Amino acid sequence: MRILLLTLLLALTQTTALAGDKTKVVYHVDDEDKVSFALNNIKNHIAGVGGPENIDIVLVANGPAVKQFVDIDAVDRVRNDVTELEKQGVDFEACANTLQALNLAPDELLSGFKIAEKGGVTRITELQQRGYAYLRP
User: Fold this and answer.
1) Which residue of 54, 62, 72, 132 shows the fewest CB atoms closer than 10 Å?
2) Is the full-model pTM beyond 0.70?
């Protein structure tokens, strides 16, 4: 009986610990035409897990998708979505290699963007090694 109680207590403790863990996801977008779709997926993902307090999301943009996040060229929907999602704790990162290839300075991106200094794919790999699930809409 004592062993059964200890087993149940241990199982309950492990279940509670797992329930408290945040979901960690890295969204990868490299296609210009997928930017709005990816941002919408992120909004749905946050709602699906019960709010931003239950998830850590990083969006990493590289290749042509980065152009959609250039401040002067960004459409209102992208600009508004990034602002809204940033307030909910989503981190936005752009590939340094892409910025160099496109002749863009980091300050030309929408406010709040960080730079993946080692490159977008390297950053994605780092996040995956830290337990982030990889999604590419």
Assistant:
1) 72
2) yes
Kindly report, residue by residue over 19-50, the tens digit of the pLDDT: 458 999 999 999 999 999 999 999 999 999 99
Residue 99 lies in a domain: yes
If you average pLDDT over every residue of the chain, what do you get? 89
Rounded CA separation 62/60 (Å): 7
13 assigned to some structural domain: no
Express the helix, strand and coil content of the chain in percent, nearest 5 each: 55, 20, 25
Assigned domain for 11 exists: no
CB 115 within 8 A of CB 96: yes
Residue span of the structural domain in which 50 resides: 22-135
CATH number at residue 91: 3.40.1260.10
**Alpha-carbon gap, residue 21 to 43, rounded angstroms:** 20
DSSP-derived secondary structure for 86-114: HHTT-EEEEEHHHHHHTT--GGGBPTT-E
Q: What is the largest CA-CA distance in the chain?
A: 70
Given this model, what pLDDT does residue 20 score? 58
- For the segment 95-107, the average pLDDT, to the nearest whole number, is 98
Domain count, the chain: 1
